[in-house]
Known about the structure:
The chain has 174 residues and is of the alpha+beta class. The chain has one domain: Nuclear Transport Factor 2, Chain: A (Roll). It contains 4 helices and 6 strands; from the N terminus they run ααββααββββ. The chain has a 6-stranded mixed beta sheet with strand order 2-1-6-5-4-3. α1 packs antiparallel against α2 (57-63). The chain starts with a helix and ends in a 20-residue tail after the last strand.
Amino acid sequence: xxxxxxxxxxxxxxxxxxxxxxxxxxxxxxxxxxxxxxxxxxxxxxxxxxxxxxxxxxxxxxxxxxxxxxxxxxxxxxxxxxxxxxxxxxxxxxxxxxxxxxxxxxxxxxxxxxxxxxxxxxxxxxxxxxxxxxxxxxxxxxxxxxxxxxxxxxxxxxxxxxxxxxxxxxxxxx
Length: 174
């Protein structure tokens, strides 16, 4: 192949390589930006979790949007004022505070502009833990993420799950 032929062949290869490099760089920058945003949302989610565990009304005041709505597992709706009032009651009643104890797992964050949807699972309660799935909608206001909506649902037992241990007869059949 002549030097001109090699050059004609190499130009598209170089252009394609440059395009792949550029796209990869943009994707990596986007991933790094998303990771940074995810860290911010997870940090404020942990602040919310700490405030709930400690029944800290002042901390929740700064985390919840003024138009905050909570949809609880029983289908009840609370606004920000209701939530802060309930939190205040919990702080003065140790039994209610124990019922609010929770830990979260299986967290996933997705972004839609200045809105983050965080989903996960949690164990709620003291000695009798209840499993729930939840969704939190965080809205970025200025440089702060605020909780707009919280919805939780009890995790139902799997269908056909026996409520009592099943005994298996291990005697050979004849």
